[in-house]
Amino acid sequence: MKTIDLDVCNRCNLKREDEFLRDLAYNEDRYINDLVKRAREEPESPLALEALKQLSQRLDDQEEECEEEMEGLFSEPNQEDGDMPGVPGRNEIQEEDILNALKEHEERGLVSIKDGKVIVTSHGVKKLAAEALQRILRSLQHRNSGVHREKPELGVELSLRTRRYEAGDDYSLVDLEKTALNALKRCGEFRFEPEDFEIREEEHRAKLCAGIIIDESGSMRDYGKLEAAMETSLVLSRLIMREPDNVLKVFAFSDKVRRLEPWAIINDVISGGDTDIRGALAAFRRECRKEQGDKQAYLITDTEPNNEDGRHLSFENAANGLIEEASRYRQEKIGLNIIMLDEGPELKKLASTIAKKGLGRVFFTVPETIGEVVVEDYLSGRM
User: Fold this and answer.
1) How far apart are the C-alpha atoms of 278 and 283, rounded to whole Å?
2) What angle do CA 48, 230, 133 make, to 5 degrees?
């Protein structure tokens, strides 16, 4: 059985993943006040653990500055809050501690703070994507012993446009029909001169035009589904953009569809609203009409369609619209890959219809494994 040669860098394997950055990035509420509250409520989170280090350091510094005033600070344990003698109360994390915890990541250009809210920079998002990809590839490597596969030869195709021959042009690109017509027009017979030769132009085409289409409706916030979808989007973005000729288009949708920059999804996705799957698919289809090469759409959702053009619809009507759009994908030779994070009866019915009509592929998975499912399928398809 053939397996995938997953090119995992051993040097990267030695690096520990930045859990603090990851915990911060996939947190919906990133205002400083919200982070203080969360650190107090979730004392085992990476954010809280780092803030506690800063709290401890802050108290130590204060004690050195004013030792007498600090005497007895921990002499009586606060049993109600679960504090222990000599240990800072975990509910005492302050804004200052959160800001100090963020300081190193700010200095490294991974995050910035704007109007009291933490923004993950493009540098930080790329770091998240690289680390998540390595984690997924390591997991897949445990299940696949490496067998080398040659990459497909993709590059240029000939367009219908021609131009006059120039010294050094490849004769295999000569358009014989137009060259012959030029000779006949010039002298009435097939007696060729250099000026008669027409060369077909090479048209560089994208190896892949991919669309990542993420459902940001309200239900995606449950059970870490939206976070898993965003991380999978980042990983897929990193894989796709390894090839400079590839084209990537990212969309987020609920009852409205938004085009996003590939690295902006961490900061721009806000859950809420209905689910207009047809509108999201149509947006990508229109965007990639002028692109050349293989075209693939990756749709990540957890619920059945219930909206179209801002109107709430029954499942039957919305599903019919989705089937119609999927048919257009087949007509325009766009691969449709639907990743479903739920197995409700209506979703299974819709998936069965899509499969029977040969309109696309449907994967049922869970947030914990969505990255592995999508990455393995993508790599298999590009080998």
Assistant:
1) 9
2) 85
- What would the DSSP string read from start to end of 163-186? EE--TT--GGGB-HHHHHHHHHHH
> Which token pair is 187?
């002298």
C-alpha–C-alpha distance, residues 72 and 57, integer Å? 18
- 208-382: which CATH topology? Rossmann fold (3.40.50)
Euclidean distance between CA atoms 191 and 377, whole angstroms = 55
Kindly list the domain boundaries of the chain, sorted by start residue: 10-143, 156-204, 208-382
CB-based contacts of 119, cutoff 8 Å, min separation 6: 30, 111, 112, 113, 267
CB-CB contact of 250 with 231 (8 Å): no
SS3 state at 76: coil
* Residue 97 near residue 51 (C-beta atoms within 8 A): yes
Q: Are strands 198-204 and 335-340 parallel, antiparallel or unpaired?
A: unpaired
- Tokens representing 166 are 């120039």
Quick: pLDDT tens for 246-271.
999 999 999 999 999 888 889 887 76
pLDDT digits (tens, 9 = 90+) for 57-100: 888 877 777 665 545 544 455 444 444 444 444 448 999 999 99
- Cβ atoms 298, 339 nearer than 8 A: yes
The span from the CA of 287 to the CA of 250, in Å, is 11
| The model's pTM | 0.72
State both tokens at 51: 């803030």
